[in-house]
Write a structure and sequence with these properties.
Blueprint (H helix, E strand, L loop, with lengths): L1 E4 L2 E3 L2 E3 L4 E2 L3 E2 L4 E3 L2 E4 L4 E4 L7 H12 L6 E3 L5 H4 L2 H7 L4 E4 L1 H11 L7 E2 L5 E3 L4 E6 L9 E5 L4 E5 L19 H16 L3 H12 L5 E4 L5 E2 L4 H12 L11 E3 L5 H16 L7 E3 L5 H9 L4 E4 L9 H8 L10 E8 L5 H11 L3 E2 L4 E4 L4 H16 L2
Parallel strand pairs: 8-9, 9-10, 10-11, 15-16, 18-19, 18-20, 20-21, 21-22, 21-23
Antiparallel strand pairs: 1-2, 2-7, 3-6, 4-5, 7-8, 12-13, 13-14, 14-15, 16-17
Helix pairs in contact: 6-7, 8-12
Bound molecules: flavin mononucleotide (FMN) and fe (ii) ion (FE2) (2 copies).
Length: about 400
Protein backbone atom coordinates (compact mmCIF):
# COMPACT_ATOMS: atom_id res chain seq x y z
CA UNK A 1 0.00 0.00 0.00
CA UNK A 2 1.31 3.41 -0.92
CA UNK A 3 0.35 6.76 0.59
CA UNK A 4 -0.12 9.47 -2.01
CA UNK A 5 -1.23 12.19 0.43
CA UNK A 6 -2.12 12.01 4.16
CA UNK A 7 -5.72 11.09 3.32
CA UNK A 8 -5.14 9.30 -0.02
CA UNK A 9 -3.90 5.73 -0.37
CA UNK A 10 -3.12 3.93 -3.60
CA UNK A 11 -5.08 0.70 -4.02
CA UNK A 12 -4.43 -0.01 -7.68
CA UNK A 13 -3.22 -3.07 -9.53
CA UNK A 14 0.03 -3.22 -11.46
CA UNK A 15 -0.09 -5.29 -14.62
CA UNK A 16 3.46 -5.10 -16.02
CA UNK A 17 3.06 -8.15 -18.27
CA UNK A 18 0.15 -6.86 -20.35
CA UNK A 19 1.07 -6.41 -24.02
CA UNK A 20 -2.28 -5.72 -25.70
CA UNK A 21 -5.08 -3.53 -24.33
CA UNK A 22 -8.66 -3.49 -25.61
CA UNK A 23 -7.54 -5.66 -28.55
CA UNK A 24 -6.31 -2.61 -30.49
CA UNK A 25 -3.63 -0.96 -28.36
CA UNK A 26 -0.14 -2.27 -27.79
CA UNK A 27 1.09 -1.93 -24.23
CA UNK A 28 4.83 -2.55 -24.45
CA UNK A 29 5.33 -1.35 -20.89
CA UNK A 30 2.30 -2.99 -19.31
CA UNK A 31 -0.32 -0.93 -17.50
CA UNK A 32 -1.83 -0.28 -14.12
CA UNK A 33 -5.46 0.01 -13.04
CA UNK A 34 -5.24 2.76 -10.49
CA UNK A 35 -7.68 2.94 -7.62
CA UNK A 36 -7.53 5.21 -4.61
CA UNK A 37 -8.92 5.32 -1.11
CA UNK A 38 -9.81 8.77 0.26
CA UNK A 39 -10.36 9.02 3.98
CA UNK A 40 -12.35 11.81 5.60
CA UNK A 41 -12.97 12.15 9.32
CA UNK A 42 -16.32 10.39 8.93
CA UNK A 43 -16.58 8.73 5.57
CA UNK A 44 -14.36 6.77 3.23
CA UNK A 45 -14.48 6.78 -0.55
CA UNK A 46 -12.90 4.55 -3.15
CA UNK A 47 -12.16 6.25 -6.45
CA UNK A 48 -12.14 3.89 -9.43
CA UNK A 49 -12.24 0.13 -9.18
CA UNK A 50 -10.34 -2.38 -11.31
CA UNK A 51 -10.43 -4.87 -14.16
CA UNK A 52 -12.63 -7.87 -13.38
CA UNK A 53 -9.85 -10.40 -13.84
CA UNK A 54 -7.97 -8.81 -10.93
CA UNK A 55 -10.94 -8.68 -8.55
CA UNK A 56 -9.40 -10.94 -5.90
CA UNK A 57 -5.97 -9.32 -5.90
CA UNK A 58 -7.56 -5.88 -6.03
CA UNK A 59 -9.76 -6.76 -3.06
CA UNK A 60 -6.71 -7.72 -1.00
CA UNK A 61 -4.81 -4.50 -1.79
CA UNK A 62 -7.93 -2.46 -1.21
CA UNK A 63 -8.44 -4.00 2.21
CA UNK A 64 -4.92 -2.90 3.13
CA UNK A 65 -5.43 0.60 1.72
CA UNK A 66 -8.67 0.94 3.69
CA UNK A 67 -6.67 0.49 6.91
CA UNK A 68 -9.52 -1.13 8.79
CA UNK A 69 -12.29 1.11 7.48
CA UNK A 70 -15.43 0.02 5.64
CA UNK A 71 -15.88 2.08 2.48
CA UNK A 72 -19.03 4.22 2.17
CA UNK A 73 -18.71 5.38 -1.43
CA UNK A 74 -17.33 4.16 -4.73
CA UNK A 75 -16.79 6.95 -7.24
CA UNK A 76 -16.42 5.94 -10.86
CA UNK A 77 -14.99 8.72 -12.99
CA UNK A 78 -15.80 6.65 -16.04
CA UNK A 79 -17.14 3.15 -16.36
CA UNK A 80 -15.10 1.48 -19.05
CA UNK A 81 -14.69 -2.08 -17.73
CA UNK A 82 -10.97 -1.65 -17.00
CA UNK A 83 -12.17 0.50 -14.07
CA UNK A 84 -15.58 -0.92 -13.33
CA UNK A 85 -15.24 -4.66 -14.05
CA UNK A 86 -14.82 -5.45 -10.36
CA UNK A 87 -17.78 -3.35 -9.14
CA UNK A 88 -20.04 -6.39 -8.77
CA UNK A 89 -17.40 -8.04 -6.53
CA UNK A 90 -17.06 -4.89 -4.45
CA UNK A 91 -20.81 -4.77 -3.94
CA UNK A 92 -20.77 -8.36 -2.68
CA UNK A 93 -17.99 -7.52 -0.28
CA UNK A 94 -19.41 -4.19 0.92
CA UNK A 95 -23.22 -4.39 0.53
CA UNK A 96 -23.79 -0.83 1.77
CA UNK A 97 -21.34 0.69 -0.69
CA UNK A 98 -22.97 3.59 -2.50
CA UNK A 99 -21.82 3.94 -6.10
CA UNK A 100 -21.56 7.48 -7.48
CA UNK A 101 -21.20 8.24 -11.17
CA UNK A 102 -22.40 10.64 -13.86
CA UNK A 103 -25.83 10.27 -15.45
CA UNK A 104 -24.40 8.64 -18.59
CA UNK A 105 -22.19 6.36 -16.49
CA UNK A 106 -25.15 5.19 -14.43
CA UNK A 107 -26.89 3.94 -17.57
CA UNK A 108 -23.81 2.05 -18.77
CA UNK A 109 -23.15 0.66 -15.28
CA UNK A 110 -26.49 -1.10 -15.12
CA UNK A 111 -25.42 -3.18 -18.09
CA UNK A 112 -21.99 -3.84 -16.66
CA UNK A 113 -22.97 -4.76 -13.10
CA UNK A 114 -26.14 -6.64 -14.17
CA UNK A 115 -27.87 -6.64 -10.77
CA UNK A 116 -31.57 -5.86 -10.45
CA UNK A 117 -31.09 -4.06 -7.12
CA UNK A 118 -28.23 -1.89 -8.37
CA UNK A 119 -29.01 1.82 -7.98
CA UNK A 120 -26.05 4.14 -8.51
CA UNK A 121 -26.31 7.76 -7.30
CA UNK A 122 -25.90 10.35 -9.99
CA UNK A 123 -23.46 13.22 -9.56
CA UNK A 124 -23.65 16.36 -11.66
CA UNK A 125 -21.09 18.99 -12.53
CA UNK A 126 -20.45 21.11 -9.42
CA UNK A 127 -21.84 18.56 -6.93
CA UNK A 128 -19.72 17.72 -3.93
CA UNK A 129 -19.46 14.97 -1.36
CA UNK A 130 -18.46 15.66 2.24
CA UNK A 131 -16.30 12.95 3.82
CA UNK A 132 -15.73 14.93 7.00
CA UNK A 133 -13.03 17.58 6.60
CA UNK A 134 -12.40 16.34 3.07
CA UNK A 135 -14.69 17.23 0.20
CA UNK A 136 -14.82 15.60 -3.19
CA UNK A 137 -15.99 17.93 -5.94
CA UNK A 138 -17.22 16.57 -9.25
CA UNK A 139 -16.43 18.19 -12.56
CA UNK A 140 -17.92 16.94 -15.79
CA UNK A 141 -15.33 16.11 -18.44
CA UNK A 142 -17.37 14.78 -21.36
CA UNK A 143 -15.56 12.83 -24.07
CA UNK A 144 -12.40 12.51 -22.03
CA UNK A 145 -12.73 9.92 -23.36
CA UNK A 146 -16.26 8.53 -23.01
CA UNK A 147 -19.47 10.58 -22.80
CA UNK A 148 -19.71 9.71 -19.11
CA UNK A 149 -16.28 10.94 -17.94
CA UNK A 150 -15.87 13.18 -14.90
CA UNK A 151 -12.96 14.49 -12.82
CA UNK A 152 -13.09 14.36 -9.03
CA UNK A 153 -11.24 17.06 -7.10
CA UNK A 154 -10.14 17.03 -3.49
CA UNK A 155 -9.19 20.64 -2.68
CA UNK A 156 -7.96 19.88 0.84
CA UNK A 157 -5.24 17.68 -0.66
CA UNK A 158 -4.80 19.73 -3.87
CA UNK A 159 -5.44 16.54 -5.82
CA UNK A 160 -7.38 15.83 -9.00
CA UNK A 161 -8.56 12.33 -9.89
CA UNK A 162 -8.49 12.66 -13.65
CA UNK A 163 -9.68 9.27 -14.87
CA UNK A 164 -7.91 8.27 -18.13
CA UNK A 165 -7.00 11.92 -18.82
CA UNK A 166 -3.20 12.47 -18.55
CA UNK A 167 -2.76 8.73 -18.07
CA UNK A 168 -0.61 6.18 -19.85
CA UNK A 169 -0.40 2.45 -20.21
CA UNK A 170 2.87 2.27 -18.39
CA UNK A 171 3.96 0.32 -15.36
CA UNK A 172 6.91 0.55 -13.04
CA UNK A 173 7.08 -0.75 -9.48
CA UNK A 174 6.98 2.82 -8.12
CA UNK A 175 3.58 4.43 -8.37
CA UNK A 176 4.76 8.06 -8.36
CA UNK A 177 6.19 9.90 -11.34
CA UNK A 178 9.25 10.81 -9.27
CA UNK A 179 10.12 7.12 -9.17
CA UNK A 180 10.06 6.59 -12.94
CA UNK A 181 13.31 4.92 -14.03
CA UNK A 182 12.74 4.89 -17.79
CA UNK A 183 11.54 8.41 -18.59
CA UNK A 184 11.83 8.22 -22.41
CA UNK A 185 9.71 5.05 -22.43
CA UNK A 186 7.16 6.68 -20.14
CA UNK A 187 6.84 9.73 -22.38
CA UNK A 188 6.55 7.51 -25.47
CA UNK A 189 3.74 5.59 -23.75
CA UNK A 190 2.07 8.87 -22.76
CA UNK A 191 2.10 10.08 -26.38
CA UNK A 192 0.82 6.79 -27.74
CA UNK A 193 -1.97 6.77 -25.18
CA UNK A 194 -2.88 10.34 -26.05
CA UNK A 195 -2.97 9.54 -29.77
CA UNK A 196 -5.12 6.45 -29.35
CA UNK A 197 -7.49 7.68 -26.65
CA UNK A 198 -7.63 11.47 -26.76
CA UNK A 199 -6.43 12.30 -30.29
CA UNK A 200 -10.02 12.23 -31.64
CA UNK A 201 -11.23 14.63 -28.93
CA UNK A 202 -8.85 17.61 -29.20
CA UNK A 203 -11.51 20.31 -28.51
CA UNK A 204 -12.62 18.38 -25.40
CA UNK A 205 -9.00 18.03 -24.30
CA UNK A 206 -8.62 21.80 -24.54
CA UNK A 207 -11.82 22.24 -22.50
CA UNK A 208 -10.56 19.73 -19.91
CA UNK A 209 -7.25 21.57 -19.58
CA UNK A 210 -9.14 24.84 -19.07
CA UNK A 211 -11.17 23.24 -16.28
CA UNK A 212 -7.99 22.01 -14.61
CA UNK A 213 -6.47 25.50 -14.83
CA UNK A 214 -9.26 26.82 -12.64
CA UNK A 215 -8.24 24.42 -9.82
CA UNK A 216 -5.48 24.68 -7.26
CA UNK A 217 -3.70 21.32 -7.43
CA UNK A 218 -0.25 19.80 -7.21
CA UNK A 219 -1.11 16.13 -7.79
CA UNK A 220 -3.06 14.27 -10.44
CA UNK A 221 -4.16 10.73 -9.67
CA UNK A 222 -4.67 9.20 -13.11
CA UNK A 223 -6.36 5.88 -13.74
CA UNK A 224 -3.40 4.33 -15.58
CA UNK A 225 0.32 4.81 -15.11
CA UNK A 226 2.17 7.01 -12.65
CA UNK A 227 0.55 9.48 -10.29
CA UNK A 228 1.63 12.92 -11.47
CA UNK A 229 3.11 15.44 -9.05
CA UNK A 230 4.32 19.02 -9.20
CA UNK A 231 7.88 17.96 -8.35
CA UNK A 232 7.71 15.20 -10.97
CA UNK A 233 6.24 15.12 -14.47
CA UNK A 234 2.95 17.00 -13.94
CA UNK A 235 4.01 20.32 -15.51
CA UNK A 236 5.58 18.60 -18.51
CA UNK A 237 2.56 16.35 -19.08
CA UNK A 238 0.16 19.32 -19.01
CA UNK A 239 2.40 21.19 -21.48
CA UNK A 240 2.47 18.20 -23.80
CA UNK A 241 -1.34 17.87 -23.70
CA UNK A 242 -1.56 21.61 -24.54
CA UNK A 243 0.66 21.18 -27.57
CA UNK A 244 -0.85 17.91 -28.79
CA UNK A 245 -4.38 19.29 -28.60
CA UNK A 246 -3.57 22.74 -30.03
CA UNK A 247 -5.56 23.84 -33.05
CA UNK A 248 -3.76 23.18 -36.31
CA UNK A 249 -2.10 26.23 -37.89
CA UNK A 250 -3.24 26.91 -41.44
CA UNK A 251 -0.48 25.87 -43.86
CA UNK A 252 -0.16 24.16 -47.22
CA UNK A 253 -2.71 21.43 -47.84
CA UNK A 254 -1.40 18.01 -46.78
CA UNK A 255 -2.65 15.23 -49.03
CA UNK A 256 -0.82 11.96 -48.32
CA UNK A 257 -1.09 9.01 -50.69
CA UNK A 258 -0.93 5.53 -49.12
CA UNK A 259 -0.51 2.50 -51.33
CA UNK A 260 0.52 -1.16 -51.48
CA UNK A 261 1.86 -2.84 -54.57
CA UNK A 262 3.09 -6.37 -55.24
CA UNK A 263 4.45 -5.83 -58.77
CA UNK A 264 4.72 -2.03 -58.93
CA UNK A 265 1.48 -1.47 -60.86
CA UNK A 266 -0.44 0.35 -58.15
CA UNK A 267 2.81 2.12 -57.27
CA UNK A 268 3.06 3.58 -60.83
CA UNK A 269 -0.51 4.77 -60.49
CA UNK A 270 0.28 6.37 -57.13
CA UNK A 271 3.17 8.31 -58.63
CA UNK A 272 1.06 9.55 -61.53
CA UNK A 273 -1.84 10.47 -59.21
CA UNK A 274 0.63 12.47 -57.11
CA UNK A 275 1.75 14.45 -60.19
CA UNK A 276 -1.89 15.21 -60.90
CA UNK A 277 -2.58 16.43 -57.36
CA UNK A 278 0.49 18.69 -57.51
CA UNK A 279 -0.62 19.95 -60.93
CA UNK A 280 -3.82 21.22 -59.32
CA UNK A 281 -2.33 22.44 -56.00
CA UNK A 282 1.39 23.11 -56.61
CA UNK A 283 2.18 24.04 -53.01
CA UNK A 284 0.42 21.00 -51.50
CA UNK A 285 2.44 18.52 -49.47
CA UNK A 286 1.81 15.12 -51.07
CA UNK A 287 3.93 12.44 -49.36
CA UNK A 288 3.81 9.00 -50.94
CA UNK A 289 3.82 6.02 -48.58
CA UNK A 290 4.18 2.35 -49.35
CA UNK A 291 2.16 1.22 -46.33
CA UNK A 292 4.27 -1.83 -45.51
CA UNK A 293 7.47 0.22 -45.28
CA UNK A 294 6.28 2.47 -42.45
CA UNK A 295 5.10 2.29 -38.87
CA UNK A 296 1.33 1.93 -39.07
CA UNK A 297 0.65 4.26 -36.15
CA UNK A 298 2.75 7.00 -37.73
CA UNK A 299 0.79 6.55 -40.97
CA UNK A 300 -2.48 6.68 -39.04
CA UNK A 301 -1.42 9.98 -37.49
CA UNK A 302 -0.63 11.26 -40.99
CA UNK A 303 -3.97 10.04 -42.33
CA UNK A 304 -6.02 11.39 -39.43
CA UNK A 305 -4.29 14.77 -39.51
CA UNK A 306 -4.50 15.20 -43.30
CA UNK A 307 -6.64 17.64 -45.29
CA UNK A 308 -7.46 14.87 -47.76
CA UNK A 309 -5.90 11.51 -48.60
CA UNK A 310 -5.81 8.74 -51.18
CA UNK A 311 -5.42 4.99 -50.84
CA UNK A 312 -4.23 2.64 -53.58
CA UNK A 313 -4.50 -1.12 -53.34
CA UNK A 314 -4.21 -3.98 -55.79
CA UNK A 315 -6.92 -6.63 -55.66
CA UNK A 316 -5.66 -9.87 -54.17
CA UNK A 317 -8.06 -12.73 -53.44
CA UNK A 318 -11.02 -10.53 -54.41
CA UNK A 319 -10.16 -7.97 -51.78
CA UNK A 320 -8.00 -4.96 -50.94
CA UNK A 321 -4.77 -6.03 -49.23
CA UNK A 322 -4.58 -6.30 -45.40
CA UNK A 323 -2.17 -3.35 -44.82
CA UNK A 324 -4.71 -1.02 -46.45
CA UNK A 325 -7.41 -2.35 -44.12
CA UNK A 326 -5.11 -2.14 -41.13
CA UNK A 327 -4.46 1.51 -41.86
CA UNK A 328 -8.18 2.20 -42.20
CA UNK A 329 -8.88 0.37 -38.95
CA UNK A 330 -6.93 3.18 -37.26
CA UNK A 331 -9.04 5.95 -38.79
CA UNK A 332 -10.25 8.56 -36.32
CA UNK A 333 -13.94 7.89 -36.88
CA UNK A 334 -14.98 11.19 -35.33
CA UNK A 335 -12.80 13.66 -37.19
CA UNK A 336 -12.48 11.85 -40.49
CA UNK A 337 -16.09 12.59 -41.41
CA UNK A 338 -16.42 14.73 -44.57
CA UNK A 339 -12.69 14.28 -45.32
CA UNK A 340 -12.09 14.18 -49.09
CA UNK A 341 -10.69 10.76 -50.03
CA UNK A 342 -10.05 8.94 -53.30
CA UNK A 343 -9.22 5.34 -54.21
CA UNK A 344 -7.25 3.66 -56.92
CA UNK A 345 -5.60 0.36 -57.72
CA UNK A 346 -4.46 -2.16 -60.27
CA UNK A 347 -6.29 -5.46 -60.61
CA UNK A 348 -6.25 -8.57 -62.78
CA UNK A 349 -9.79 -9.82 -63.36
CA UNK A 350 -12.33 -8.94 -60.70
CA UNK A 351 -11.03 -5.71 -59.08
CA UNK A 352 -12.86 -5.55 -55.73
CA UNK A 353 -10.17 -3.57 -53.86
CA UNK A 354 -11.28 -0.09 -54.87
CA UNK A 355 -15.04 -0.54 -54.41
CA UNK A 356 -14.56 -2.32 -51.07
CA UNK A 357 -12.33 0.42 -49.67
CA UNK A 358 -14.77 2.95 -51.03
CA UNK A 359 -17.67 1.33 -49.14
CA UNK A 360 -15.71 1.39 -45.92
CA UNK A 361 -14.83 5.07 -46.31
CA UNK A 362 -18.43 5.88 -47.12
CA UNK A 363 -19.51 4.17 -43.92
CA UNK A 364 -17.03 6.42 -42.10
CA UNK A 365 -18.90 9.32 -43.75
CA UNK A 366 -15.87 10.55 -45.68
CA UNK A 367 -16.38 12.62 -48.82
CA UNK A 368 -15.45 9.82 -51.22
CA UNK A 369 -14.45 11.07 -54.68
CA UNK A 370 -17.01 9.80 -57.20
CA UNK A 371 -14.37 8.71 -59.73
CA UNK A 372 -12.58 5.42 -59.01
CA UNK A 373 -9.33 4.69 -60.78
CA UNK A 374 -9.04 1.02 -61.67
CA UNK A 375 -6.43 -0.25 -64.12
CA UNK A 376 -6.09 -3.79 -65.42
CA UNK A 377 -2.60 -5.19 -64.71
CA UNK A 378 0.26 -2.99 -66.00
CA UNK A 379 -0.72 0.66 -66.59
CA UNK A 380 -0.22 1.93 -70.18
CA UNK A 381 0.89 5.50 -70.97
CA UNK A 382 -2.81 6.23 -71.46
CA UNK A 383 -3.65 4.81 -68.02
CA UNK A 384 -0.93 6.94 -66.43
CA UNK A 385 -2.30 10.04 -68.15
CA UNK A 386 -5.74 9.09 -66.80
CA UNK A 387 -4.21 8.68 -63.33
CA UNK A 388 -2.74 12.19 -63.55
CA UNK A 389 -6.12 13.56 -64.62
CA UNK A 390 -7.76 11.64 -61.77
CA UNK A 391 -5.36 13.17 -59.19
CA UNK A 392 -5.89 16.63 -60.66
CA UNK A 393 -9.70 16.35 -60.64
CA UNK A 394 -9.70 15.07 -57.07
CA UNK A 395 -7.42 17.87 -55.85
CA UNK A 396 -9.49 20.54 -57.62
CA UNK A 397 -12.55 19.38 -55.72
CA UNK A 398 -10.96 19.66 -52.24
C1 LIG B 1 -2.02 -13.95 -55.12
C2 LIG B 1 -2.76 -13.03 -56.05
C3 LIG B 1 -4.15 -13.00 -56.04
C4 LIG B 1 -4.85 -12.16 -56.91
N1 LIG B 1 -6.22 -12.11 -56.81
C5 LIG B 1 -6.91 -11.27 -57.64
C6 LIG B 1 -8.31 -11.17 -57.58
O1 LIG B 1 -8.97 -11.85 -56.80
N2 LIG B 1 -8.95 -10.31 -58.38
C7 LIG B 1 -8.28 -9.51 -59.26
O2 LIG B 1 -8.89 -8.69 -59.94
N3 LIG B 1 -6.93 -9.58 -59.35
C8 LIG B 1 -6.24 -10.43 -58.57
N4 LIG B 1 -4.85 -10.50 -58.65
C9 LIG B 1 -4.17 -9.72 -59.69
C10 LIG B 1 -3.55 -8.43 -59.19
O3 LIG B 1 -4.58 -7.56 -58.73
C11 LIG B 1 -2.79 -7.78 -60.34
O4 LIG B 1 -1.64 -8.56 -60.61
C12 LIG B 1 -2.37 -6.34 -60.08
O5 LIG B 1 -1.87 -5.77 -61.24
C13 LIG B 1 -1.28 -6.25 -59.02
O6 LIG B 1 -0.99 -4.89 -58.82
P1 LIG B 1 0.29 -4.47 -57.98
O7 LIG B 1 1.51 -4.65 -58.80
O8 LIG B 1 0.07 -3.01 -57.64
O9 LIG B 1 0.29 -5.32 -56.77
C14 LIG B 1 -4.16 -11.34 -57.81
C15 LIG B 1 -2.75 -11.37 -57.80
C16 LIG B 1 -2.05 -12.19 -56.94
C17 LIG B 1 -0.55 -12.18 -56.96
FE1 LIG C 1 -11.12 4.51 -20.64
FE1 LIG D 1 -8.93 3.31 -18.66
Amino acid sequence: MKKIKPSINFAGILNPGMRVFDVIMRTEYGTSYNSYVVKGAEKTAIIEASHRSFSRLYGEGLEEALEGRTPDYLILNHVEPDHSGSVACLLERYPNLQVLASQAAAIYLKNIVNREDFKPSIVRDGDSLDLGGKTLQFISAPFLHWPDSIFSYLPEEKTVFSCDFLGAHYCEPGVLDREILYAPEYFAALKYYYDCIFGPFAPYVRAGLQKLKALDFDTVCTSHGPVLTKDGALGRVLELYESWSAEKQAGPARIPIFYCSAYGNTKSLAQAVREGVLGAIPDAEVPLYNIIEHDLNALAEEMNGSDAFLIGSPTINREAVPPAWQLLSLADAINIQKRPVALFGSFGWSGEAVPHLSERLQSLKCAVFEQQLKVCFVPTQGDLAAARAFGEAFAKGI
